[in-house]
TrEMBL record:
It is found in: Cytoplasm. It catalyses: 2-formamido-N(1)-(5-O-phospho-beta-D-ribosyl)acetamidine + ATP = 5-amino-1-(5-phospho-beta-D-ribosyl)imidazole + ADP + phosphate + H(+). GO terms for molecular function: ATP binding; phosphoribosylamine-glycine ligase activity; phosphoribosylformylglycinamidine cyclo-ligase activity. It is an enzyme of class 6 (ligase). This is Phosphoribosylformylglycinamidine cyclo-ligase.
Length: 333
C-alpha cells in the first residue's frame, strides 16, 4: 500500500505556510550586508569594513523554560531568549553580533505557533542588531510529542583582533560593574519548575508565568556604546552557574573577583523562589543570576563614566565589587 510523507506525520504544506508567515518578521532584521534572502541553500553575509576581523561564535538553547511557554501557550518571548543567550555570550569578547540562525523542532508543525516562535527570534535579532539570515524547522513525528517544540540558535559576531576582550588585562583594584537582569532569564528553570508547579498562581497581581517568561535582556547596544569610549578589561554574561561560575571566567590568572552581597540588588522573584522552595543561599547563587545579567570589569577611573554611558540606554548599572589577588574563583562576601 502506498503511503505519503504527510501520512507518515510530516506536512510539507504546513511547513511552506510557516515560512511564509515568518518572512515578514525576518525581513526587519536584514541589512545591506546580507547578500541573499531566505530560500537559498546557504546564507551569505559580507563582513564589510574590518582591518583584521576575528569571528566569534556561540550557540545555545532556551532549556526547560520552554515548558512554561508551551503550557501557557505564550510563544512570542522564548525566541528572544534563544537569541539573547547567544548574542550576550559573543558580546563578552567585544564582538558585535552580525548574524543569527535558528533551529526549531517539533512533533507536529503548527504554522501559526512556529511563526510566533520565530517572530520572537526576529525581535531578539532586531534588538541585537543582528540579521536573521536562515534557520531550520524540523517536523519529527514520533520523536517529539504533538505540541512539543524545541528552539535553539547560532550566532556569529565580529571584532577587530586588536579590540578583543578576554579578561587577560584585569588587575588588582579593577571595579566590577553589574547591569541588571530582567528576571530569571533562561537558566535554572528545572529548579524553578520543581518549586512552582501552578503557572497561574498569582504573583504581583498577575499569573506568575508572566514574570517567569520575561525574556532574557539583550545587552548588545549599551555595551557596544561603552566599548566605543572606554577600555573594558573583561565581561561576563551571567547564565547557568550564576556569578560563581561565570564571573571568574573573565578574570586573569592570579586574581579573583570579589562580589559584596550588600551591593547586589536581588530581584523579588528570586526571593520568592528561595522562600517557596526553602532553597539554601549558596544553591541560589550557584543556579540563578540573582538580578545581575551582565558584568563589566573596568579601571577605577572609568567606573563613573561607564555607569553614566549605560544610563543613556536606560540601564541602571551599579558597582558590585572589585578584583583582588588570589586563586581562581569567586569571593562572595
Amino acid at each position: 500500500m502506498a503511503i505519503s510523507y504527510k501520512e507518515a506525520g510530516v506536512d510539507k504544506e504546513e511547513g511552506y505556510r510557516a515560512v511564509e508567515l515568518m518572512k515578514k518578521a525576518v525581513a526587519k532584521t536584514m541589512n545591506s550586508n546580507v547578500l541573499n534572502g531566505l530560500g537559498s541553500f546557504g546564507a551569505m553575509y559580507e563582513l564589510g569594513k574590518y582591518e583584521n576581523p576575528v569571528l566569534v561564535s556561540g550557540t545555545d538553547g532556551v532549556g526547560t523554560k520552554l515548558e512554561i511557554a508551551l503550557t501557557t501557550k505564550k510563544y512570542d518571548t522564548v525566541g528572544i531568549d534563544a537569541v539573547a543567550m547567544c548574542v550576550n555570550d559573543v558580546l563578552c569578547h567585544g564582538a558585535k553580533p552580525i548574524f543569527f540562525l535558528d533551529y526549531l523542532a517539533c512533533g507536529k508543525l503548527d504554522a501559526e505557533v512556529a511563526a510566533e516562535l520565530v517572530s520572537g527570534v526576529a525581535e531578539g535579532c532586531y534588538q541585537a542588531g543582528a540579521a536573521l539570515i536562515g534557520g531550520e524547522t524540523a517536523e519529527m513525528p514520533g520523536f517529539y510529542k504533538v505540541g512539543d517544540y524545541d528552539i535553539a540558535g547560532f550566532c556569529v559576531g565580529a571584532v577587530e583582533k586588536s579590540k578583543i576582550v578576554n579578561g587577560s588585562t584585569t588587575s588588582e583594584g579593577d571595579i566590577l560593574i553589574a547591569i541588571p537582569s530582567s528576571g530569571v532569564h533562561s537558566n535554572g528553570f528545572s529548579l524553578v519548575r520543581k518549586v512552582i508547579t501552578d503557572y497561574n498562581k498569582e504573583y504581583n497581581g498577575k499569573p506568575i508565568s508572566e514574570t517567569l517568561l520575561t525574556p532574557t535582556k539583550i545587552y548588545v547596544k549599551p555595551v557596544l556604546a561603552v566599548l566605543e569610549k572606554y577600555n573594558v578589561k573583561g565581561m561576563a554574561h551571567i547564565t547557568g552557574g550564576g556569578l560563581p561560575e561565570n564571573l571568574p571566567r573573565t578574570i586573569s590568572e592570579g586574581h579573583q573577583p570579589v562580589v559584596l552581597k550588600e551591593k547586589l540588588r536581588v530581584l523579588d522573584i528570586f526571593k520568592y523562589i528561595q522562600k517557596e522552595g526553602d532553597i539554601p543561599e549558596d544553591e541560589m547563587y550557584g543556579t540563578f543570576n540573582m538580578g545581575v545579567g551582565f558584568v563589566l570589569v573596568v579601571d577605577p577611573k572609568d567606573k563613573d563614566g561607564v555607569i553614566e554611558e549605560l544610563a543613556k540606554y536606560g540601564e541602571e548599572a551599579f558597582e558590585i565589587g572589585y578584583v583582588q589577588k588570589g586563586e581562581k574563583g569567586l569571593c562572595l562576601k
